[in-house]
Amino acid sequence: MKKKFQSALAALAVSTSLTGAAFAEGHGAPLSGDLVIFSDMSNPAPRAVMEGMVAKFGEMHPDLNIELTVIDREAFKTQIRNFLTANAPDVTNWYAGNRMLPYVEAGLFEDVSDVWEGALSQELASTKGALTIDGKQWGVPYTYYQWGVYYRADLYEKYGLSEATDWATFKSNCQTLLDNGVKCFTIGTKFLWTAAGWFDYLNMRTNGFDFHMALANGEVEWTDDRVKATFANWRELIDMGAYVDNHTSYSWQEALPFMVQGDAAAYLMGNFAVAPLREAGLGDDQLDYHQFPAITEGVAMAEDAPTDTFHIPSGAKNKEAAKAFLKFVTSADNQTAINAGDALGQLPVNAGSSVDDDKFLREGFEVLSANSPGGIAQFFDRDAPAEMAKIGMEGFQEFMVKPDNLDKILDRLERARKRIY
Length: 421
Known about the structure:
Structural class: alpha/beta
Number of strands: 13
Strand content: 5-15%
Shape: globular
Number of domains: 2
Number of helices: 19
CATH architecture of the largest domain: 3-Layer(aba) Sandwich
CATH class of the largest domain: Alpha Beta
CATH topology of the largest domain: D-Maltodextrin-Binding Protein, domain 2
Oligomer: single chain
Largest sheet: 5 strands, mixed
């Protein structure tokens, strides 16, 4: 039977009060044995958060031996099926939406619906649909975050630019920057997914959220004129020379110095980019954020807000401890702490958590809770099936380098759509 997801993220509902109920639940019984955790939280700030959670959980359960293995985030994506199949850990990081579907269908993820029972189901309601397949929950969320345009406020001020709310201003800002020897956007497309962020926003702003999700679900042909309109808008930026050169050679981190050094003015990225930009020396007076501008009049604003998750492999050996760890991860006070501006710098999912007093988190929360009436997407490589996402992102990267290849790219994507769905 074909698996069906429940509706995607509902409206955000994060209160300013804390509750310890979810945190305490499930921690009364002593835990022992080994708890093996594989994590993809390999960048410095996320790694510190992961190590901190393990240390805290270990203090709560002194008879439990916790073994944490942190794997490079990109390598993790290619290794997960192998380690889920042979010698699985007890807990692993992954993602919500279609990204978890193959592992659920293959019987490699454990049904954790019992972890969601009680108050937790309401506290995590905003992401429950993204973690539900066939009425069961297959993981738990620990963070989600806004995407948007992060920009050098000092460069905008220097050249008399304002935050763009429409497509014409977006392009005119870009032209002013180019006229002054500054690239409009940095990007590193070596691992493809950064190009998907551009496609998501351009398509949602050109055609709307419902069309975008229908395309991701295989219900629209890639050769459709509406898809071509999205790429036509994208080509306007490409033909201007908006992006840094040789971006296929860079990871997203390797593209950061262009913005730090002032060679590029902005980055379309998730809020996780703020920490390394700050660490590289940019102060909050130099760095700012705005929502991706409107393109087609009347199309409701929609956003990407990816949800990162923890799962229990079906081959886990200590499922009791694994479920207790998932309850700990989702507790209100833990999610407040790990999503703080000096930690992950993202948004907690638990409705009992507090949003940190960080300007980027406040702006992101405002965008997601009050200015995204069109809907909330997970991200192209989470909303589309894995095989389609890979082929699509290869096409996006190719288009950014060789836009004249568009017809060939769309024909290739359409053949893949007919085969995959």
